[in-house]
TrEMBL record:
PANTHER family linked to this entry: MEMBRANE-ASSOCIATED PROTEIN TCAA (PTHR40038:SF1)
Zinc-ribbon domain mapped to chain residues: 5-26
Name of this chain's protein: Uncharacterized protein
Record-annotated membrane-spanning stretches: 71-90
InterPro entries named in the record: TcaA_4th, Zinc_ribbon_dom
Comp. bias intervals (Polar residues): 40-59
Residue ranges of the region described as Disordered: 36-64
Membrane among keywords: yes
Length: 463
């Protein structure tokens, strides 16, 4: 008989026993309940296994997606892609480096610079016209443009410029502009009534109390300034071109004039750069006042000889005045005529000629052209010998006084001089004065007397 054990006390019992003989436990009821529970568990497991097998072997049909849903999905994907792509593009395009590149391009061309520029100075107007000098400067100064770009990348600033954030692009990307600190310049002149100009734009007029003007604001760049005025009837102008890169610059724009005295032979006509100014009077001087100073100011004289003009050498006025100031020499301008003897040299020449003749010197003829063959020399020499041989004349002498020198024909000099003849006799003293129109010419480095000319008695006195 098949054995089993009591589930309550573990006593060995025979199969089919209803109650345990040891403890009285209802074994039959226990086995029945256990069998019912096992049956239910088997049914559940079978059901789950069948369902799992059905799921594994059969596909459940899906509901097809509508056209509208498909379009919505596609549009959504495209929008996301565009947004991501647009952001990445904007991030690159609106980067500080890219914005700086566009500013540099505008600086070195005729492009629209104003849209990239701003300023903290309320007096300055930002527009393309006002920024043209800045572009002109950088177009002609390529090295400065390279320094500008390098400094901006490294430090964000360069001279009067600074890279400054000014709002945002698309509410996302920082917007940078070129912040400009403008320059101011002070213009100076030296006469009241002078007008200041920037280009062709009149800025102000100088007065006796104020001969300067502060101009600006200007964007850094290349500018042209002018001063205009009428001084002593002369219309004058001065101009200057400057690269303004900082404030505080001063530009001296005087209308420079010169005043000077010309010395020459009376009757000489005065020319300044071939413009006739006037004629030298009996004083031998001509005054020039407030003429516009120019480096090429040249003066020359013209003297009429037998209705023919004889011209002097030219003299550079500014050079002469500068040398006179530097060396402390007389500033009067005396144009020289080629071959014309000076008055002092003429005085010495004629004095020596008459004294040598008076003394019957062996070299008396040296003062005359052609020496002993000169007619006037021989007449003077013979006259002097006659005076010396005259027994009634105890002593005699000559006093020479050169009155004037002027240019003559063919490079010679016309020398107007007087000679006083002094005669001492036994019972009287006679003084005679004669005038001579002498002619002198150049002989190498020396001067010689061509002729004494006909003598004209000026006076005679007997004492």
């Amino acid at each position: 008989m098949e054995k089993m054990f009591c589930p309550h006390c573990g006593n060995e019992i025979e199969k089919g026993t209803q109650f345990c003989g040891n403890c009285g436990y209802n074994v039959e009821e226990y086995l029945k309940k256990k069998a019912d529970t096992q049956s239910k568990n088997d049914q559940t497991n079978n059901a789950q296994t069948g369902e799992h097998q059905q799921r594994s072997t059969q596909k459940v049909p899906k509901k097809p997606m509508s056209q509208k849903t498909k379009i919505s999905w596609i549009v959504g994907v495209v929008v996301v892609v565009l947004l991501i792509g647009g952001y990445m593009f904007g991030k690159n395009y609106y980067s500080a480096d890219k914005q700086l590149d566009r500013i540099v391009t505008a600086l070195s061309s005729d492009g629209d610079l104003a849209k990239y520029a701003t300023t903290d100075d309320p007096s300055m107007k930002i527009n393309d016209k006002n920024l043209q000098p800045t572009q002109k400067y950088f177009k002609t100064h390529k090295a400065q443009l390279a320094k500008f770009k390098s400094s901006m990348r490294n430090t964000g600033s360069y001279q009067n410029f600074e890279l400054k954030q000014d709002g945002k692009y698309l509410l996302l990307f920082p917007k940078y502009k070129l912040n400009i600190t403008p320059a101011y310049v002070t213009l100076h002149t030296n006469h009241a009534g002078v007008k200041f100009y920037q280009g062709n734009k009149k800025l102000a007029t100088a007065t006796s109390d104020k001969k300067s003007y502060k101009a600006g604001p200007y964007a850094p760049g290349t500018y042209s300034f002018k001063t205009k005025g009428t001084i002593s009837g002369n219309k004058m102008q001065n101009s200057a071109t400057r690269d303004l890169t900082k404030s505080g610059d001063d530009i001296q724009m005087d209308l420079k004039t010169v005043s000077f005295t010309i010395k020459g032979f009376p009757g000489s006509e005065v020319y300044l750069n071939d413009e006739k100014l006037g004629k030298i009077g009996d004083t031998g001087k001509y005054r020039v006042t407030d003429k516009p100073e120019k480096g090429n100011m040249e003066v020359h004289l013209e003297y009429k000889v037998n209705d023919k003009a004889v011209s002097s050498k030219t003299v550079n006025v500014v050079k002469k005045l500068t040398e006179a100031q530097y060396y402390g020499t007389p500033s009067a301008i005396t144009p020289k005529f080629e071959g014309v003897i000076s008055k002092s040299d003429a005085q010495t020449l004629f004095e020596n000629a008459f004294i040598d003749a008076q003394n019957q010197s062996d070299d008396a003829a040296d003062s005359f052209k052609d020496g002993q063959n000169n007619k006037d020399f021989n007449e003077l020499y013979e006259m002097s010998k006659a005076f010396d041989d005259d027994d009634d004349i105890y002593t005699f002498d000559y006093e020479v006084d050169v009155k004037s020198v002027a240019p003559d024909e063919n490079g010679t000099s016309a020398v107007n001089f007087q000679v006083k003849f002094n005669f001492d006799k036994e019972d009287e003293r006679k003084v005679q004065v004669f005038s001579y129109p002498g002619v002198v010419s150049k002989d190498g480095d020396d001067y010689v007397i061509n002729k004494l000319g006909g003598a004209t008695k000026v006076s005679e006195k007997v004492y």
